[in-house]
Design brief:
Layout lengths: L7 H15 L9 E6 L1 H4 L10 E4 L11 E5 L12 H4 E6 L5 E7 L10 H14 L5 E5 L2 H9 L4 H9 L5 H4 L5 E2 L8 H11 L4 E4 L3 E6 L2 H21 L10 H11 L11
Parallel strand pairs: 7-8
Antiparallel strand pairs: 1-3, 1-6, 2-5, 3-4, 4-5, 6-9, 8-9
Helix pairs in contact: 4-8, 5-9
């Protein structure tokens, strides 16, 4: 059996954790990532039947029973993942009851997965109902996006239109736009349920004055999505106080829809 530290999924999540911390998206122990793994991916590295211990997930998800997840640990710093993956990450299977995690590897100090796991699991269910290839849920605190939630309307249509017009690639990277939930206390099932409901409509959910949830088919896909939204927010903050002399028009955005074969939500662009 191969060393799990050599597994591509461990190398990839470690690299992204380091990168996100360096970008300032995950200060202190902020942020969390969960990755849905195939059984075939883990069997060269782990005995899938050797459960080290069990931990309640805090939420019952029968549809995910038997599924395997790689997830960042609660209370740990992303910057340290590169030095001790087994302490800062873990792999578990959702057991038959749909509400217990069987730890297969990691959380080596007796810790466990992020406190936001219910929000992750609910969001995985939502995204899988839209795209069976969805594998990653990523939560972080990008500076410019958070700042934008203080000075811009939180209306989803208006927020999305502003971001789309900040950079040409935005409308084809996230044609579904962004969805926004009201401010809520984090780490609760309530915020998880609200996020998951929005995840049925978009791969991006904004938590005002807090951060963002992004989803993707791979870690790079989810990371690139958030990266694009954050850059658009940065452009907005640089020009919001200045007289704008020209911008992308709705006609331009329709041209991009046609060129890249994407569709924005009905009525979000002028005809």
């Amino acid at each position: 059996m191969h060393s799990i530290t050599e597994a591509p999924f461990i190398t990839e999540i470690t690299r992204i954790c380091t990168n996100m911390y360096s970008l300032g998206w995950d200060e202190r122990n902020a942020g969390n990532i969960s990755v849905l793994l195939d059984e075939e991916e883990i069997t060269p590295y782990l005995d899938k039947d050797r459960i080290l211990r069990t931990v309640p997930t805090g939420f019952k998800v029968p549809s995910l029973a038997g599924k395997y997840f790689l997830c960042t640990a609660a209370g740990k710093y992303f910057k340290n993942t590169q030095y001790d993956a087994a302490l800062n990450l873990g792999i578990f299977r959702i057991l038959e009851d749909g509400e217990t995690a069987g730890i297969l590897w990691g959380y080596s100090d007796g810790g466990q997965f992020t406190s936001e796991l219910p929000a992750h699991l609910m969001s995985h269910v939502s995204r899988l109902s839209v795209d069976q290839k969805n594998r990653v849920i990523l939560h972080c605190h990008p500076l410019n996006l958070i700042a934008m939630t203080y000075v811009h309307s939180l209306d989803e249509r208006e927020f999305s239109r502003t971001l789309w017009k900040m950079e040409t690639e935005c409308v084809f990277v996230f044609p579904d736009g962004v969805r926004v939930i009201p401010w809520m206390v984090c780490g609760t099932n309530k915020i998880g349920e609200a996020t998951a409901e929005k995840m049925k409509l978009s791969r991006i959910v904004v938590w005002p004055h807090h951060g963002i949830y992004g989803a993707g088919r791979s870690i790079d896909d989810a990371f690139g999505l958030v990266e694009t939204v954050e850059k658009a927010a940065a452009v907005y903050l640089k020009i919001a106080h200045l007289p704008v002399k020209q911008t992308l028009t709705d006609e331009n955005l329709h041209m991009l829809e046609k060129r890249f074969n994407v569709k924005t939500p009905e009525g979000w662009l002028e005809p």
